[in-house]
Amino acid sequence: MICNKCKKDVMATIHDLCIECHDDIPRDPIVESVIAKYQKRSEEGMIKYGVTMMRDDLSTIDWLNHLQEELMDATLYLERLRVKLESIEVSKDDELATFSRSLLEDLHFKLSEEGYFEQLNNDDNE
Ligand SMILES: [Zn+2]
């Protein structure tokens, strides 16, 4: 596709303009927030360990072990929060607990869809 403004051949256009030529595409604040966290974590990891995710000293089994351990830890965090929300639920604040639990379930679903949990526990595993 050819961008109407810069005339470059690009993979995709939005209203005939490439992404660089658009200055009015709204940014999703949640996505921006997560990107900023990834960036900060990456910088901290580089300072602490001095290697990028392109490191080649880990085998496929090593990577799978890291992933499995992090997912196991994620289910523990989930259970801990679930227990907390259930204790709120049996107290007076039923409506808040229901609301919080549905938020947590939505969040968990979205995070697991996006493979986010491997980010949760890197510090414990390295
Ligand atoms: Zn363009």
Report the helical percentage: 55-70%
Assembly state of the chains shown: single chain
Helix-strand string: HHHH
What's the count of strands?
A: 0
**Bound ligands:** zinc ion
Largest sheet report: none
Overall morphology: flat
Distance between the amino and carboxyl termini: 45 Å
- β-strand percent reads under 5%
Radius of gyration: 21 Å
Mean pLDDT rating? 86
Report the structural category. Answer: mainly alpha
Low-confidence stretches: none
> How many H/I helices?
4
Brief summary of the model shown:
About 60% of the residues lie in helices and about 0% in strands. It has about 130 residues and is mainly alpha-helical. The longest helix is centred in the middle third of the chain and has 31 residues, at about 60-90.
Give structural notes.
- There is one protein chain.
- This protein is an all-alpha fold and about 130 residues long.
- The chain has a domain at about 60-125.
- About 60% of the residues lie in helices and about 0% in strands.
- It contains four helices and no strands.
- It is flat.
- The model has no long low-confidence stretch (mean pLDDT about 85).
- The structure holds zinc ion.
